Every structure is written in C-alpha cells, then in structure tokens.
Amino acid sequence: MNARLVILVALVLGQVAAAQQDLAPSAEAGDTAAVDRDIGPLKDRIPPVTGYTFLMARRFEIAPTFSLSFRDAFWTKYVVGATLTYHFTETLGLALRGGYAFTSVSGSAQVCPSPTEACFSPSKEQLNGKGPGQINLITGLDLEWAPLYGKISLLAEGFAHFNLYLIAGPAALQYKAPKDGNAPGSESAWAVGGEAGLGMRFIFNRWMALRFELRDVIYREKTAGATETTGAAYQVRNQLFFDIGLSFFFPNNFNEG
Amino acid sequence: MFRSLRPLVVLLALVIAGGAGAQTFQGLDSPQQPKKKKAAKKSSSSTKSAAPKSSAASTTAPSVTPASATVPAAAAPAATPAKATSAQDLGIDLSAAPAKAQQDVPVPPPPPKKGTAPTTTFEALDVTGRTADRQRLEAANASFNRGEYDKAALAAWELMNDPKMAPLQLESQYLLGKTLYRMGQYHAALGEFSQILARGKDTKFFGKSLEWLFFISHKTVNESVILDEVARYANADWPDRYKDEFHYLLARYHFVRGRALDTVDQKVEAAKSFEEARKLALTIPPSSRFYAQARYLEGLTWFRDGKMPMALEAMKEVVRVTRPSGSRTPADAKVADATRDLAFMQLARIHYGARQNRYALYYYGKIERGKPQWLEALFESAWANYRIGQYEQALGNLITLSSPFFRDEYFPEALILKAVIYYENCRYAESTAIIREFERRYKPVYDALDDLTRKNMEAADYYSVLADIQKKNRAAKKAGQSPDVILERVLKLALSDKDLKNTNESIIELENELESEKSHPSLNSTDLGKHLQDLLKKQRTALIQKAGLMAKAKLEQEREELRTLLGNGERIKFETTTKEKEFLEEQLQAGGRRAIIKKYRYSVAVNDDQLYWPFQGEFWRDELGTYQYTLTKGCIERKTANQPSQNLSDASAPAAK
Description:
The complex is a heterodimer of chains A (257) and B (657).
Chain A (H helix, E strand, L loop, with lengths): L1 H21 L2 H4 L13 H4 L3 E2 L8 E12 L4 E13 L4 E14 L18 H4 L7 E20 L3 E21 L7 E18 L4 E15 L11 E17 L7
Antiparallel strand pairs in A: 2-3, 2-9, 3-4, 4-5, 5-6, 6-7, 7-8, 8-9
Chain B lengths: L1 H25 L8 H15 L3 H7 L24 H7 L6 H8 L15 H6 L6 H14 L3 H13 L7 H14 L3 H12 L8 H14 L4 H9 L10 H21 L3 H16 L8 H14 L3 H14 L8 H24 L3 H8 L9 H14 L3 H11 L11 H12 L3 H27 L4 H20 L6 H11 L2 H19 L10 H63 L7 E3 L19 E2 L12 E3 L2 H4 L4 H6 L6
Helix pairs in contact in B: 1-2, 3-7, 7-8, 7-9, 8-9, 9-10, 10-11, 11-12, 12-13, 13-14, 13-15, 14-15, 15-16, 15-17, 16-17, 17-18, 18-19, 19-20, 20-21, 21-22, 21-26, 22-24, 22-26, 23-24, 23-26, 24-26, 25-26
C-alpha cells in the first residue's frame, strides 16, 4: 500500500515536472516567429503610374460638344453645346453642360392615317406637337467619376492614353409640348429629369483631349391627347445621346505633386 | 514479477520526481536559505495546490532548457579581446564583454540577514509553505500569465528594488524582461536580459536569457542589435535548438566586424574576422534552416579574399539548397528566396569581375522584378550590357532607374554610364549634357560631403547630422513640401551601407519604443517608467555611437568615390571635346561635307510574346525593367569613328561588390 502511494506521488511529481519543462522561454514568449521583413511586392510599394503625361486634378475643362440622339422614333436631335467641368481630384469632377438642339424628323417616324391608307413619313410640321421628344434646349449638372486611366494600342501602330468616366446628375430640358385640347401646333415647356452616362477621353497632350459620351436623359414629358377634362397627361421618356467633344484643359499644364 | 520490479519502479519514479524538484527549486533558490528546507517547501506546494502552470513557468530553472552543448573554443572568436581603440573605431564591442557589462548591472540591494520572509505573521498563514516574498513573486508571475503585463512589470520592478527581496532580485528582473518582451518593448527587454547575462554564465536564468535574445532578434527590425551580445557570450552553453542560429549570428557578427575593419584599412585583423566567420558558417549542417545563409556568408568571405572558385561553389550551393520547394514554411520560404537572390547577385558579380559578361547577365536576369535586389541588378546589368555593346538594353535599364519610383535611390554612376554610351555612339553633345547634369546633381553633394567629413566631428555627431536630415525631410514631406534634395542624397548615400542602414533602423525602432512607453499609462510617472526610459536612452546612445562611426567611414568612402566619379566625368568631357575637335578638323579638311552621325534603321517589331509600347515619358509600374532604348542615330562607322576607349570604358565600371 505504502509503495503504491509512493509510486502515485512520484508519478504526479513526474507529471508536474514534465509540465514545468514545457514552460521553457519558448512557451512563455508566445509567438517567437520572426516578423515579416519582406519589403512586399512592387504593387504595394509604388503607384501604378508616375510621370503622368496627363492629369486633371484642380483643372478646368471646357469642351465644345456635338451630340446626336439615337433610338428615337420621332425626332432626331443634333445638339450643339458645351461642357464646363471642374476636376476637384483626379477622379471627381462637377460638370455643367448646355446645348441647343436642332431637330429633324426621324427616319423611322411613320404616320398611318387609317388601316386602309398607306403609311408615310411625316413632315416636320405634321409631326410638330404630336411626336414626343422635340427637345430644344438641354442642360445638366453632372457629377463625374473617372476611375480608370489607361492606354491602348491600336494594332500596335497607334497608341493613346484614355480615361473612362461615369456621369450622373439632374437635367433640365425645354421641349415642344403638344397644346392642350388637341389644338394643332406646339408650345414650349420645361421638364426636369436626370441623366446618367458613360464617357471616355482620348488624350492628345497635356491640355487637349477628345471625348466621347453616351448619355441617357430621363424626364417627364407632356404627351399629345390631353383634354381639358382629362387634364395633361405625362409620360416618362428616356432620350439617348451620343456626344463627341474636344476638351481643353486650363491651366494648360500641371504638376504631378 | 511485478513485485520484484516494484522497488525498481519506485526508485525510477523517485528519481524523476527528484529531478523535477531540483529543476523547480533551482529557480527559487535563495542564497540564504538552506537547500533542504526550500526543497521541502517547494515539493509540498507543487503537490498540494497543483501549482498553476503559469506560476511554475517563471520558476523553471535554466537547467531545464536544452542547453547542454558547449560551443567549441575555436568557435568563440569574440572572446578574443580586440584592442580597445580599434573596437571603438569600429563601433563594435569587442572588449571582454562580461567585465564591461557588469559595470552596467545595478548592484542588487544588500540581502536580508536571513533568507526567510520577514513577516512571520504572513508566513504563519501560508498554508502552502511558501514565503511571503515568494508569494509576491508568484502573484507577479500570475499577472504575467494572465496577460496583465503592466501589472506584472510594476510588481517585478517593485520586487527588484525591495531590499528585503534581494534573493529574488534576479528572478524578478527575469520576469521584468519577459514582461517587457510581451509588451512589445523589445529593446527594453534586451536591456534587462543583457543585465542578467552580464552577471555571468553561472547565474540562474543565464541560459534562458540567451534564448530570449533569439526571440528578441526575431521581433526587432533586424538582428544586428543582438550581435554584440551573441559575440560577448560566444563561449556560453547555447541551447542546442538555437545552436545553428547562434553560429550563424556569430558568423555574421564576424563578417560585419571584418567589413568594418576593411573600411578602416586594418586588413590583417579583417582577414582574421572573415576567417572566423567562415569557420563558424561551416559548422552549420546542411539540414539546418540557416545552412543557406551560412554558405552565403562563407561565399562572401571567399569573394573578399579573392578566391573566386570557392566563392562560386558556395554561391551555387546556396542556389541549389534554396530551390523553391513546397516543404518550407512561408517564413522559411521567404528567407530562402531572399538568400537565393543574394546568391544570384553575387554569382553575377563574380562573373562580371571575370569579364564573363553574358554569364553575369544570365544571373542578373534571375532577379525578379520588384525584389529587393532588383534595382541593383538592373544597374549592374546595364554595365554588363554596355561591355558587350548592348547599348540599347543598357540605356533601357537606366530609364527604369531614372523613373520617379526610384528617384530616391542613389545611383550616381548611372549618369556616367549613360554619358559613356552616348560618347561611344558619337553623340557628343548629349554626352556632354549628361555630364553637366551629373555635375549639377552631384557636385553639391560632393561639396556637402566634403564639408561634413572635414569637420572632424565626434562619431556620434555624424549620425546626428544624418538623423537631422531624416527628421527635416520627414517634416517637409508631412507639410507637403519637397525635402532638401542635396541633403536627401547625402542621406541616401549614407544609408546605402547596409550595416549603417540596419543600425539606423534599430535606432528609429528604439526611438519608437521610447515613444510607445508613453502609451502604457500605468507605467508613466513610475520609477519603472523612468528606469525604462533611461535604459532605452543608454541603448540609443550606444547605437548612435556605433552608427556614427559607420556613418563617418561611409561618408568618407563615398566622398572619395564621388570625387573619382566627378574626375571620370571630367575625363569624359575632355575625351568628348577632343573627338569634337577632331571631327571639326576633318570637316574643315573635307570642305564641310563630312558627317559624323547617321540615322540608324530601327524597328519596333517585337517577339510574339512581347508587346510594344512607346515610351512617352510616363512610367507604368508593370513596364518597369522592360525598357529598351532605341538609338535612332549614332556613329557613321561605329568601328572607326569611335573605338571604345578601353580606359574610358573601364574608368567608371562598377567594381564587383
């Protein structure tokens, strides 16, 4: 019995000793692995581009533009306008745009007087006040976000720098609305809406760029067929534009900083 | 059968238990207490309360650690006392370490006349049989184990300074060291462990403190801070598991020392150091994690001695053993990768030195984009390309070096190489313009260096100058201003010395630690806080002294190199002017019809696996290192118009490093 007790005590002591042996400095020090002294990959150490040939931050951009509407069943608009943008940073800017639209009857516009008569392409006068989308003036205030700057190779012969941007903001339009009571002719009306779009600048040098833009202007337009009893009827329309413009940047040089 | 074995089993068990007891008690020994009494006390506490692991941890004696192997005397070169003057000159502590270190050790308060706890009342209540002193220490240990490091540190400090606790002073200091480590105060912890080590290898916790040195070296910005300590205790019984690391660090210590001695022209002493480094490196077996690094060091020592075949073999061995393999841990893989790159660089330099330029280019090409050695590889391969007439590739490499990403790097020879290449291609006007640019950039740097080195300041002041530049430039950058370009270049130049860079990083780390002391409010305005501040300041002073010596040597060396480069620039200008004069004379004789330059035909066609992008002054990260310059015009008859002048070509070629 006595001997058993001694064995038991001895074994317990042995285990305690073993536990204490485990508590060497390496156990007390916690994580003793060497810290990572790697300088890290190149992408973590240096920016993607330096020595920029083109920068926009804290610069004004003035761009005379020409816009063309498309996918419009009644009116084709040719808009002559301009955009003034201030670029707060390389990626963010605020643009004020305005343009005067020349309208012509769209090739797809057809008037079919009755089921028995052949359809025909209406004249401008015939469509005036009847076809929606007869825009005269278009203005907008857009927030611009340009997240992408790059360069492209055109068949390994031509090389161009570009940036890609998105715009969104409120828009106001003046258009020719149908007169009340189905009266012939049209009258000017204003509509407020919004626009969103995607654009791209191809950069020629430090102060000039060619810009292309696709915009969708969404607004509420008074429609034909409104009567005094029913009141004015409105519908939401969206108008797609393709813009092309030549941008000039001021000041005409920049510091990378 | 069992019965007959029982006494044997009992005996064996008792032996184990006895051993355990001894281990446990060694850490608790009080010189005043008779051992028998203590042993009895401790064993009772162990069994009774099944002492928490944590409290037992701090009382584990050093003999528990696997520190049995003895470093052979031959592998203990640091014990060889160097002359005090040369040691001072080098900023490396080569003096008989323990004696010196002991001066710094705070004298423990006089021990109480009796080893037992002074308060009998408390002892009477101690059912575990521990003394009140011991209980206080165990409470501190318990705080440590609970992760209450501030509390543990304060308690340990209190115990250390309580005259009544003299027997536990060492143990308390050990606890303080551990606690500081866990608090991330690695330099402060190093200070405490250094003091324990300085008491001599017979001291308790000596072996364990050595182990902590390794842990600290793993956490600090580089291992250089512990190299002196490692060298100081070269003859100690280093724990087996760290023996290879110890040999490697000691080899590094001797290597760094050798380099420093070389700098001050003490070639014989330097040779001894390199020999020692080599011997130590060779003690590391191939199975060790440190084998590749050790062989690399060995290769460097052969290289320094001019024994290139041996150096080549060592470097090739490094490349062989660091071949990427999935069996390594990520950390080991990183170390292996970095060592492999260093070996490739050295292989390239050896071949470059032997004028085997294509081999050199092969090895330079092994350094991947973005690796730490990459820029140096690009620059040095530009020289190799130049030597074999691949001017366009050489100039292409220099474009990468001139990019804003690397503008801060210091490659003054890049402009000289560029000028030489333009000269070789009869583009004299450009060559002269490049030399002017070189002079515009680097003459003021040379003047600043000359001013600085002529002042004959104290060593530490040289480092202070560099530290001031760093601070000013940091402040300027913070304020959005451009730093002083010339001073920035002086700084970059000084920090191109890797040993100085390491020491500088350690100083900055130490200063950050000094600052971070403030982030432990419980330690602020305590004696411990003050003690730690003093300790760190002392360490900083020592490091600054060391860095100052290195800085002085480096700045003087760079001043001379810059002087040589400026001289080479003058020579290139002279050669260029001579060639221009010859050409004008020939033109006069030919009635103005003689031309020297013609347009070259060139194509932008590239291989199928490549893309051509013209360089328009914009640097794209993914293009760096791939540039090829197109020489659109050059000598009409390259062979006759401008024979490469051997003298000129070699004048500025980089010496293999």
